Queue: 2 jobs
Job 1
Amino acid sequence: MSTRTLTKTRGGVGERVWRIDGVPKVKGQFLFGSDLWAEEMLWGHTLRSPHPHARIRSIDVSRALATPGVHCVLTADDVPGRKTFGLEFADQPVLAYDRVRFAGEPVAILAAIDPETARQAAGKIVVDYEVLPAVTDMAEALRPDAPRIHDFGNVLRHVRIEHGDPTASADVWVEGYYETGMQDQAFLGPESGLAVPAPDGGVDLYVATQWLHVDREQMAPCLNLPPEKVRLYLAGVGGAFGAREDVSMHIHACMLALRTGKPVKMVYSREESFFGHVHRHPSRIWMRHGATRDGRLVNVYARILLDGGAYASSGAAVLGNAATFATGPYEVPNALIEATRVYTNNPPCGAMRGFGAPQVCFAYESQMDKLARALGMDPIELRLRNAVGPGSVLPTGQVIRGSAPVREVIRRCAQLPMPTDEGDRHPLSLPGGAGNVSRGEGIRRGVGFAVGYKNIAYSGGFDDSAEARVRLFAGPSGPVVEIHTAAAEVGQGLHTVLAQIARTELGVEQVLVRQPDTHVGSAGSTSASRQTMMSGGAVQLACQAVRDELFARVAARAAAAGQALSGEWSLEGGLVLVGGAPVGEVGAYLEPPIEQTRVYHHRRTQPMDARGQGDVHVAFGFAAQRAVVDVDLDLGLVRVVQLAAAHEVGRMLNPQGVTGQVEGGAAIGLGLALMEEIQLEEGRIRNASFTDYLIPTILDMPPVESVVLEDPEPGSPYGVKGVGEMATIVATPAIVAALRDATGRELNRVPVRPDDLIGLSPPASTGPPPPPPAVPGPEPVPHYYGLDTGQQHLMRGN
Amino acid sequence: MIVRAKVNGEWRTADVWPGASLLFMLREHLGLPGSKNACEQGECGSCSVWLDGDLVCSCLVLAAQAHERDVRTVESLAAGERLHPVQEAFLETGAVQCGFCTPGLIVAVADLLAREPAPDEPTVREALSGNLCRCTGYVKILEAVALAADMMRRAAS
């Protein structure tokens, strides 16, 4: 019997705790991918295509290879196995062969003793290109006479969702056309990793990524190695936001390491990073909303076009999201949604925080404001009147079964305090800020509001399960829990949350979270706002299995001593309690240590059928934001004065982490509203630097008033829902609504530029929506051509 | 070429390419990867260090320019296990997410508070406008600066 005093376990679920990786991060000791180093390490370098579309006639690497300090130069001929890779379809060449399809596509790679030698040698590679006509406009790509980007055509996927009677009439109609630009994730830590050849002929790759196992699934066939010989370890990740879902330098570094027999490090420069990862799909969206005179939505038509650039990436799933969320978190009895994701010779697009939802949220929330004006109704009242709730039917026919406190989210956001105006304005707080361009003469304030939603976890029948291994052992100063998963910590704080879960489940304060690797089963991707639910769920299950075994050991020892224990079993402060009374110290039962591995699955979903119907999504997160802006009507400059945010998360496991996601997510939405766009000219990126591609600074980002609602999601561990993406989705339309309120202008394209605000540029315009393309069916097109999939294949194996 | 500099209180030498930046020398020759390379153009502040006591972007300074001069990096701030108040404030307020901008921000905040112990919010915003962060939306960074200023004032009184 223990004589220790019972103390509550600190640092559990719901508490405010320091990040588990915080101390090394503030000391500069945390090792990111770019900080790795090995004896005799070489530096890898990539030569990229300057043309958006060209035939490769020949490549001469002899001068580069003869450069002192260069160890090898490789082209497509040197790819040991399959020549292509891809998340959903293997349509992207490891190194271009025959053709290049976007400006920035990798053509050759080399390894040299230092980065400068590598860079200069790459300049000596001679590629003979025959330049081909490029398709750089997403509507052009759909024309029958457009050049083909791939043999199967220029459409990756077309989705048609028919709901109710799409011909239903309405009292009032509003129509709109909207565009969103190509946004970059702009994580601070560029693509990086270190590949180390292994004695068994395999390779160990230390890399900053979002999903180790799907990387390996794509890499192993290209390297012509069995998966167990391609071992991945997560290096420190300097932000992700979707940009690390795709393979970047992974295969290249491994090819160079395997060829030279030496460790090879690759680190992209900021400029190269713009070419090295996919971007947010630019969109063109046509919408028509019909409502009754008292403000009930009757019918919505949406036509969505997404420019996916040269390769598939995760574009088929992004399109699925854009289509299924196109009517917003509103009850709509009738709808027709047609969405197409095309290929062009622009840089490839794929996942970025929000994943198809921000583009349509900008459009449907702009439409809701337009409808409110047409009806003479308060925009918040219109949203409350149409908001979905538990039991609502979405256009896919999916019934919302989980938590959906949308009206409460809207009300709580609207109630947040408005900014208190400073009597005498600080010159830095005027639009234009430190530029001191105004004394505040032409400033008008505007207020805007937006609501949005997005799915948690993967959709459409995909079982993106997560595995966790938990080990409880006796350490030198008490029992220790070790958590081993492949779940990528990308900065959002997942590993801290996993430790909190272990503390709560096992009543033990000392927790070690191992750096993720492929020696444990897949955790799925750190994306889709899913890891707290999925890997959190796996850690909870594994902890419960460990606890059961611990209790069995305690019971067995008590029985051997002739003791009968009765009452409820629990763990607290390193003690085993029965009926609330301590019966022993956890540490006394850990020889041998207890280890358990468990897999968490979310509820099953279905793919959409030919009419876009199906129980598609696992669960939904909802958010509302209100933006207050000051616009200088003479100069077109903007200061966002305040963002007020209401988010519902099921349950908060780490409150500081939740508000951190809300604030950081809103900043990226603010960027899309006001400044962030990759400028393309004939398919070439013109602003591949932080001097020319602007992301919000501390001067651009306002205070965020936030409130978090907890309405537990049935069936989810602790009732959690993810929160990573929702703030990004709603911030953009809320800010643009505020700009419209201040200026009275239409502003149908983001990012909004100063020219748009002072009327120098007309609203974005186009012709009628393009007709639906003639493609085989609701499945993504490459599927019909037998291109294998990365993720589907991975999950079939489980 | 050989560059000799006093780095975090210790004279160090490195044989660098003449075009190498101070950041490259610190990271790749002297084993001090705390200063980060995120933009190479002096836009993001991730590589902030002190050169003879002045805050600089080490990506914009040639290694050769640091010859015979004093360089201090983020690695100099904590005294063993004891964190600098700015470091502690960043952890306490949740101002750290991915952590890539964190070393540069911590150096910039420590520099600001050494010059101005009680800055108002507009001053803080202007002082940190050269440090990009993509994760936090800066809200908790502002809280961290206020907390660090408090802690340092309390410690001084």
Job 2
Amino acid sequence: MSRHLDVIGVASQYCCDGLEVMQSTVRDSLDASFGQPAVKVDGLSKAFKGRPALQQVSLRVETGEMLALVGASGSGKSTLLRNLNGLQQADQGRVEVFGSPLQVDGQLHSKVRQLRSQVGFIFQQFNLVRRLTALENVLVGNLSQVSLWRSLTQSFTQAEKLKALSALERVGILDQAYQRASSLSGGQQQRVAIARCLMQGAKIILADEPIASLDPESAGKVMELLTLLNQEQGITVIISLHQVQVVQRYCPRSIALRQGVVCFDGRTAELDEARLADIYGSAVEELVLRGHSEVFVP
Amino acid sequence: MGMPPTHLNSANSTLSPQVLTTLSKEKKRITPLRIVWGLLAIAVLIYAGQKSDLSFGELFQGSGNMMEYISRYFPPDFNDWRFYLSDIFETIGMGVWGTLMAAIVAVPLSVIAAENVAPFWLVFLVRRFSDAMRAINEVVFALVFVVAVGLGPFAGVLALFVHTTGTLIKLFSEAIEAIEPGPVEGIRATGASKLQEIIFGVIPQVIPLWTSFTLYRFEANVRAASVLGIVGAGGIGVSLYQSFRAFKYGKVCAILILLIVAVAIIDTVSAKIRQRLV
Ligand SMILES: Nc1ncnc2c1ncn2[C@@H]1O[C@H](COP(=O)(O)OP(=O)(O)O)[C@@H](O)[C@H]1O
Ligand SMILES: [Mg+2]
């Protein structure tokens, strides 16, 4: 028992160091890529079997922004996010991350894995390995730094474990570290996924409808957590959402897609009813006027 | 009494024409095509029966002789039980090593035989390779290996190994093809390499099934190993065959009883473990 408490004590101590390290790496990268936007997209187009999903999408996201991606279902939000870290390749156009081209006209950069390791991704369905523990799922975030031999033996160093545990503490589920992911609630799983982004040292977090499968309370916690990471650690957050009230509450800037075309890019405050009707079409009634806003009122 | 008909009537009157036409489109159970297939199946069965000298009459006519023959097996003769027991352990040992070696080889090969992991030409190549290993019975492989490495259990282990490798590659790779892709993508998104995706994303998902398949094959291999002695590839089959040749049916019976008990124990234990895994 006392030993167990000890571990937590060490971890929380380490956590503060870890945070400082994380913040200083953010600063370093800011210096290195000074003036470079976190994400820059130019003329990105992609079609599935001839049907366009993205058409000439161009956008620029500065470091430290918290940006919402909105649009009706099928408007191309997931496709855009997956193209930003090269999980999918576009047909035309380019994506740059901190000034480095990640994909150009459908060709991934030869060092795409290194670039990807700076970009965390959070999925609607969490996408954790359910049979691994929360801790192991977080440790996976560091794989780009792990040698082939250590991967084969699935062995992690003490330092890596402490870093992972402090990431779990940061997201508030340190006590679940040795639980299998499958035994955690949806909200807890999503927080493990966020901890994995921290482990990864992500400077950008892409989140594809991260709260769509969560109950309102867990959804609120996840949004608060992402906001905190954005404000305290300067992590750039790009998040696709379909609840307009959530967007209005957490994201100063929004980009709206309609049938794969950017149809709005500006301050969320300017998203008035007419614009929303334009973005969502007939679904506006359900999404905007009868949304789940009541949940997010503090 | 009067209620149901009125009920039906009222229901009928409110039925929409769409409901009725949908019902009329229901597929018929007996169609000319099905009759043809049925007749064809019966013809094949009759032909196969003739080819294999199927004759239930003979079985009944000879039942008197049969009873006399069976009675020669009793009482079982357990005089050499120590010898049989050591043979049974040898048989189980052959099953353990044949299965274990096969599982070790099948792990990497099944990964490159899974369509959702490897390129199609590699999948094709490994799958045909495993088909070939699976198509040939253990006894045939045992004959081959007895010539190659000499009489004894090692030839049997190699025979089990080759056949089981073929089976496990197929079963393992089918398990990989059925995994959830989401978690693997989650790992890819962190900047992990393809091999790391497999180690941390694919393997944990298939481990319970893989273990279960391996145990199942182990049960089957112990049964198979008990036959391999007949061609000189070690195990309890050697004593079994020798007793047969010497007409010592009491000994045969004793061996069979021990074998049944051993296999039953292994099957029960292994089934218990498999239940826990899935
Ligand atoms: N893997 C795919 N194969 C075929 N079509 C796809 C695929 N992914 C997305 N699409 C299509 O691309 C369009 C945009 O989809 P998506 O990016 O998932 O939209 P959103 O996330 O905004 O709901 C949709 O019409 C969808 O059917
Ligand atoms: Mg989507």
